[in-house]
Amino acid sequence: MKALLRAAIMVAVMGGAAQGALAADKAADKAAADKAAADKARPPGASELRASAEKGNAAAQNNLAVNYATGNGVPKDMAEAARWYAKAAEQGYAIAQHSLGGMYENGNGVSKDLSTAGVWYSLAAEQGDPWAQLSLAELNTNPAFAKGDPAVAYRWLLVASRSADKEAKAAAEAAAKKLGPKLSQAARTTAELAAKAWRPNQ
């Protein structure tokens, strides 16, 4: 009788252990799945971002440039920021093109060059970046910009005023309202027709 009782107890104990092990396995699997999901959602760390940038990912190159420009996670270095912006800009990344244009306009990390700034602003503006369009318009009203043309500035302000970006749209509308009356009727009409016909590069 005692032998049978001991056997029953052992079976119960072993069964409980097996259930415990199964529950532990399930918990471990869930923890691994949760970690994988968290890793996927987590923004890339500095080393991962640099690795992606060095492999040619334009978005990563732009973000690395931002980090160098702001000193986020790396020592602030405007020349290094310009170098990474250029890598992304050369791949057609509009945000980087606009940022690089700003660096050339202000001489941050590169020698000041309004003509080069205009080139990069134009490339981003033609892709439909409203902030680049605003920057290009402002550059065209700068007396120091040899190629400046207020009518061209007005055209880009009209284009930017159609943006879905509410802040950019408001800024463009306000600037166009101030610049428009300073132009001749012919210049305004030409700019309005050009803005109406404009479509972003794909």
Element string (H = helix, E = strand): HHHHHHHHHH
Helix content: over 70%
Poorly predicted runs are none
Amount of beta strand: under 5%
Q: Could you tell me how far the N terminus lies from the C terminus, measured between alpha carbons in angstroms? A: 86 Å
Count the strands? 0
How is the main sheet built?
A: none
Radius of gyration: 29 Å
Report the principal-axis shape: elongated
Indicate the topology:
Blueprint (H helix, E strand, L loop, with lengths): L1 H40 L4 H9 L3 H13 L7 H12 L4 H13 L7 H13 L3 H10 L10 H11 L5 H14 L5 H13 L5
Summarize the structure.
The chain is mostly helical. It contains 10 helices and no strands.
Key terms:
mainly alpha; 10 helices; 202 residues; 73% helix
What does this structure look like?
This protein has 202 residues and is mostly helical. It contains ten helices and no strands. The chain has helices spanning 2-41, 46-54, 58-70, 78-89, 94-106, 114-126, 130-139, 150-160, 166-179, 185-197. Helix 6 packs antiparallel against helix 7 (130-139) and helix 8 runs antiparallel to helix 9.
